[in-house]
Amino acid sequence: MDVFNKLQILAAAAKYDASCASSGSSRSNVSRGLGNASSSPVGICHSWAADGRCISLFKVLFSNYCIYDCVYCANRRSNDLPRSTFTVEEVIDLTINFYRRNYIEGLFLSSGVLKNADYTMELLLLVVKKLRLEHSFNGYIHLKVIPGANQELIREAGLFVDRLSVNIELPSEKGLQMLAPEKKRDDILTPMKYIGNKINSNREERKLYKKALAFVPAGQSTQLIVGASPEPDYQILHLAEQLYQKVKLRRVYYSAYVPVNSNPLLPTMTFPPLKRENRLYQADWLIRFYKFRAAEIVNAQTPVLDPDFDPKSSWAFRNLDFFPVEINKANYETLLRVPGIGLKSSQRILSARRLGTLSFDHLPKMGIVLKRARYFITCQGRFLEKIDNEMLIKQKLLAADLPVAKMGQPHQQLSLFEEV
Amino acid sequence: MFLYYIYDGTFEGLLTTFAEALPHQNQVAGISPTRDLQPDLFTEIVEITTNQELSARFFGYLSDHFSQRTIKEIGYCILAEERGLELIVLKYLTILLQRGEALKGAAHHPIISKIRSTAKRVAAEIHRLYGFLRFRQLPNRLFYGAIAPKYNITGLLATHFTARFADQLWLIHDTKRNIGLYYNGQTCTYLQKVELPAEIVGVSLPPHGQEEQKAQFYAESEINYQKLWNEYFQKIAITERKNPKLQRQHLPQHYWSYLVEKVDSK
Ligand code: SF4
Predict the structure, then answer these.
(1) Could you tell me if B103 lies within 8 Å of chain A, comparing CB atoms?
(2) Are A139 and A226 in a shared domain?
(3) Is the minimum distance from the CB of A279 to ligand 1 under 6 angstroms?
(4) Quick one: which of A324, A385, B159, B196 is 20 to 30 A from A141 by CA?
(5) Do both A281 and A325 map to the same domain?
(6) What is the atom index within ligand 1 of the atom nearest the CA of A76?
(7) What's the pLDDT at A406?
């Protein structure tokens, strides 16, 4: 089979992974070779596919043969579909030549499990090592850890790549047992904890010895599939919060389940639950940047996110007594809680306030969405429009036909252009 | 009496103008690279001759007074090449010099917010070009990237692309302004006018138009990698999530002509 056909098969097989980030690495082009992964603090998108997702990395599987039979996965061994495996040289040649033409920021390499976990992991590691050592390639590399692979292989990979990820995929032990019965929970959690600890100790080490090699400088991420198993948003976000706090993950990706197989164990659906995925990303942003706790957003009483309203507005409706917030007095954390006020605009309010009192006329110029914020704020004690009835506010907001809250759009890299 | 300044449209010319105009800033009615005003009784037209030394000194003066961030913002606004923006930049300089840079915190001030939003648009285009510029390999190892940016930002791409493509020869060509950047494997040079460097022989620059017709201008393997990339681009999309509106929003049609994967679509 020629490279063209292999690429067709192995790109299509890689598309369900949501991660596209290329940001946050410190790897620079010291060798005057090819590539510079540290060039942009926010990551660079090189194109956008027909599904509206950013293309930053050359995302591909090494092989789509797999010894496992996970129920939700298109590559499960019992599926009858065209299969292929790259050679190490083929992946390298594609990566280098795509990079030289400025198509990509680097490589995101994953694979189905060939023979066993170690055998597969060794092949992936070989690609990475050759790129770095023989081709002086300094572009971004994201490598997927094959669950069950030897710790020594993971350690070595960590010294050559920018990011490692271990995908949890199913957000609960029960889901895992049902849909991926051959995978052990520990095969996923153990490498995650190991990588987390290594990143921490490496950071300490690098404080003492500047020359120590960086271990996974762009951090660790994972992916959760949404909608293949029955866990409510409450359980998903609670897990994400723990992953951020306890394992110090850089990023959790949520991937709306695309019905690729039919099986009595899987839900029947025609479309992937995209709305739900989007709400989860928004909630995730509230946790990471807006100082919300997961339990404030969803909990046992409100286990699922409202499809009609973004999670910040939903929180505001449930906590109307928190409002109104006085623009001229509130502190940063309080401003962040107001629907229609973002990270940047909260900061702008703080610095503008030092120069004088603010009125409603000033706010749109500072990036505040008044149509959304107006029911929740006062300027110098006055409302623009005072309504303290939840239903009425909801009606008004729905009728106002507001643009989707920008926060947390899944395939957007972290706020661009902050440099200016 | 109002003053209307005419300069030669260059960066140095504008700095010269600012240096001349600053003492009379209350009277300035306009600054423009073209003579598009009918003089009336109350307006005097002042023609500025670009003075390299004065413009360098004025730049030094600004650098002493303002943070890097502010300098960058002002530079971006000038490179936006927008009609009428010169006067706004002058007003911006005036208020910051009079009242201190801390005034920038007044995000709602009309001049400050105009400068901020313009600089942001220019920065956004620079960032876009980091992603959307495509190199096509010509014979003789030269990688050629044609662009047609809205703003005059080609010079600002040098650091990024030099750090990234340190071991290949490349030429970035702003076809709209016929200016460019050439990297010979050692140093990057700004080209006031794009001509192929003498060491590149047997090569001519590909014309605009359909990719297929340009094949004869390319290195042998070029079309092959383009085909591979196009195929990758098709296959990586999830059909069940098709969202042309979102795609177009992130990938404005303006840039399609650069893109190997989009150049021949409508
Ligand atoms: S191990 Fe990975 S590739 Fe193999 S069936 Fe399971 S999810 Fe799919």
Answers:
(1) yes
(2) yes
(3) no
(4) B159
(5) no
(6) 5
(7) 58
User: Chain B residue closest to A363 (CA)?
Assistant: B108
Instruction: State which amino acid sits at residue A360.
Output: F
Residues 6+ apart with CB under 8 A from A150: A117, A118, A121
Both A71 and A145 in one domain: the answer is yes
Residues 6+ apart with CB under 8 A from A378: A324, A325, A326, A327
Domain ranges within chain B, ordered by starting residue: 2-125, 133-258
Is the minimum distance from the CB of A161 to ligand 1 under 6 angstroms? no
At residue A138 the predicted structure's pLDDT band, cuts being 50, 70 and 90, is very high
How many CA within 13 A on the CB side of residue B215? 9
Q: Tell me: pLDDT of A323 over 90.
A: yes
Q: Ligand 1 centre from B230 Cα, in Å?
A: 27
Indicate whether A287 and A345 sit together in one domain: no
Percent of chain B with pLDDT over 90: 61
CA–CA separation, B175 vs B154, rounded Å? Answer: 10
Give me the mean pLDDT over the A24-34 stretch: 79
Residues 171-210 of B with CB under 8 A from A: none
Range of the domain at A384: 311-401
From the list B73, B106, B240, which residue is nearest A271 (CB)? Answer: B240
| A73, A110, A188, best to mutate for ligand 1 pocket (most atoms within 8 Å of CB) | A73
Q: How many CB atoms lie within 10 A of CB A241?
A: 20
CATH number for the domain that contains residue A221: 3.20.20.70
What is the reported pLDDT for A412? 46
β-pair type (A140-144, A163-165): parallel
- A363 vs B: CB within 8 A: yes
**Cross-chain Cβ contact B108/A58 below 8 Å:** no
Asked which of A107-111, A225-229, A265-269, B95-99 is least confident by mean pLDDT, the reply is A265-269
CA A396 to chain B, closest CA, distance in angstroms equals 26
pLDDT tens, A324-368?
A: 999 999 999 999 999 999 999 999 999 999 888 999 999 998 889
- What's the domain count of chain A? 2
Whether the CB of A73 sits within 6 Å of ligand 1: yes
Residue A418 forms part of a structural domain: no
Query: What sign for the dihedral angle of Cα A86, A89, A94, A96?
Result: positive
Residue A379 sits in the same domain as residue A279:
no
User: What tokens were used for A171?
Assistant: 């957000």
> Is A253 inside a domain boundary?
yes
Contact in structure between A123 and A88 (CB atoms under 8 Å): yes
- Same domain (yes/no): A123, A61: yes
Q: When comparing pLDDT for A237 and B257, which is higher?
A: A237
State whether A164 and A258 are in the same domain.
yes
Instruction: Give a yes or no: residue A14 inside a domain.
Output: yes
Q: Residue A411's pLDDT is what?
A: 46
- From the alpha carbon of A77, which atom of ligand 1 is closest? 5
What band does B141 get if pLDDT is binned at 50, 70 and 90?
confident
Arithmetic mean of pLDDT, B93-117: 88
Which residue of B116, B240, B255 is the best one to mutate when testing the A interface, meaning the one whose CB has the most A CBs within 10 A?
A: B240
Q: Which of A7, A8, A417 to mutate to test the interface with B (most CBs of B within 10 A)?
A: A417
Query: What ipTM describes this predicted complex?
Result: 0.91
Max intra-chain CA distance, chain A? 72
CA of A194 to the centre of ligand 1 (A): 22
| Residue from A9, A68, A111, A177 to probe ligand 1 pocket by mutation (most atoms less than 8 Å from CB) | A68
In the reported structure, the alpha carbon of residue A413 is separated from the centroid of ligand 1 by a whole-number distance in angstroms of 27
Of A269, A297, A325, which residue is a domain's last?
A297
Ligand 1 atom at minimum distance from A64 CA: 3
What is the CB-side half-sphere exposure of residue B12 using CA atoms within 13 A?
Answer: 9
Say if CB A118 and CB A111 are below 8 A apart: no
Same-domain pairing of A24 and A132: yes
